Each structure stands twice: as C-alpha cells, then as structure tokens.
Amino acid sequence: MDDPEEVFSKSSALSSSDLPTPPRFAYLISGTKGDVNSMKRLLKAIYHPRNHYLLHLDREVTHNERATLGRFVKQSSPFREGGNVHVVGKANVVSYKGPSMIATTLHGVAILLRYSEHWDWFINLSAADYPLVTQDGIYPSLNYCCLSEIVCFFDICMC
Asked: How many helices (H) and strands (E) does the chain have?
C-alpha cells in the first residue's frame, strides 16, 4: 500500500499538460408535439462547442413546429458557427412504450456517427429533461473518475 503522503505529493504535482483532454458528448434530444420550446431551452442549457447534437421530433409534430426548430438552429449563431447541431428531417414514428424508442435511439446514434466519430459518450435526452450540472461540471468527473467499464455519476463511480 502506498504512503498517503507520497500519493498526495504525486497527484498534486500534475501539470495541466498531464491532464487528459475533456471528453466529447453526442446528444440525441427527442421530443413530440408541443415540445419545441422545451427542446430549445434544453439545447441552450447543455450546448458546448466540443459536443454534437441531434434533435429528433417524432411524427406527431406539425410541419410548423419542425420548421420552427430548424430555423432556431440555423439562426442561432453558436449552433450555426459550431456546425454541430442537426435536426432530423424525416421523423420516425415513436411509441413510447415499444421498440420504436430503441430503433429511434439507434438511428440517432448512426446519424451522429455519420456527422462525426469524434465523441466519447452518447447521452439520450427527452425534451422534458433539464441539466442539474453544466457541461463544464461534467467533464472533470468523467475525465478523472471513469475508465473503460465504469459508469460515473458526477463524483461517484460505480463498477
């Protein structure tokens, strides 16, 4: 067993060049009829230029709602400049109690991989979700806590 003083001195001697680069996330944000404003609010709250975002509105959404979301993404300069926010053009039928949810999620992952393979974690959110921690608050937990088969929740790791 290592001497605690020695472990502390080694860990405090790390320079910023020794730290790993922050992970990149790929988000699928799904919504249905009436969720456009919630999706816009969620996207603004979780947006970070390092990440990738795919917005999916199911087939219950009107053409007007879908167009509103598309305009919001195109007209918001951070999203437009980053080029990392995309809206699914052809919506899937989603039954929130059946296999279509899984199919939509897998389809979303495939689309995100076509846009970029440069992400480390996939996060599936609905328009009803809202973050409790900022993107910058999530990064350190995943960087220093997680290795290959570990799931992290902020500063608590579980195997």
From this structure: 6, 6
Please count the structural domains in the chain.
1
Reported as a single tens digit per residue, the pLDDT across 60-99 is 999 999 999 999 999 999 999 999 999 998 877 777 677 8
Evaluate if residue 106 carries a pLDDT over 80. yes
Q: What domain range includes position 126?
A: 22-132
- φ and ψ of 97, to 5 deg: -120, 10
Cα–Cα distance measured from residue 157 to residue 153, given in angstroms and rounded to the nearest whole number: 6
Both structure tokens of 106: 């897998």
Q: What DSSP string describes 95-134?
A: -TTSTHHHHHHHHHHHHHHHH-S--SEEEEEETT---SS-
The pair of structure tokens assigned to 116 is 């970029």
CATH number at residue 51: 3.90.550.10
> What pLDDT is recorded for position 143?
57
pTM for this entry: 0.76
Residue 93 placed within a domain: yes
